[in-house]
Amino acid sequence: PDSVVLPPYMADHPDIRMDWAKYLDQMEYIDNEVGMIIQDLKNKGMYENTVIIFIGDNGRCNIRGKGYLFEPGLHIPLIVYWPKSIAPNQVNANVVSTTDITATILDMAGVKPPEYLTGSSFLKDDFSREFVYSARDLWDEVMEKSRSISTNRFKYIRNDMDWTPYDAHQAYLEFYRPAVHIMRKLNFSGKLTPEQKLFFELTKPKEQLFDLQNDPDELIN
Q1: Residue 13, exposed/middle/buried by CB under 10 A (0-12, 13-18, 19+)?
Q2: Close Cβ partners of 15 (under 8 Å, ≥ 6 residues apart)
Q3: Has residue 138 got a pLDDT over 80?
Q4: Overall pTM > 0.85
């Protein structure tokens, strides 16, 4: 935990460092699990004839992560292996929506996508997505209504229920996010930095605009 580098919006506390270190350990664990699956495909002679798509269903499970419209909640992994059509070690800087993954799988299978499908295959030479829409609504027992639009450079968030704070004492987070409890106490004692206090404001800004290039942690509205 001593070597862990925390984002500026998280308090530097031993328990938070331990929680973050365990999260990184889980990433190493799943990397090993994926390696076992790949090795099994190779052993069965199926590796070169298999498409592998590695994604996350949501962002990381910590402050500003899963369930929020900040980058740690929206920017998920996307790694695709397909020796038939994708050269290795490429990085595509295009904005991609999860709806595009469905369209891409249909494209791989040679299936024409239905008219109502909003996604596009990112394997197409003419693939171009300028922005991605995201939303936060009812999450368990917490009523919310927030919308966002993201490009490679900027993100705009509109909070229609700005009276609902980020720290809404949601039961799920109370059980599984130790950093919330620790930072809540530090905030009560006046020991958080301005960047760390943002999560514990009693209301949210009605509108937010972030420059993701110059402010990747989304601290300056």
Answers
A1: middle
A2: 178, 179, 182
A3: yes
A4: yes
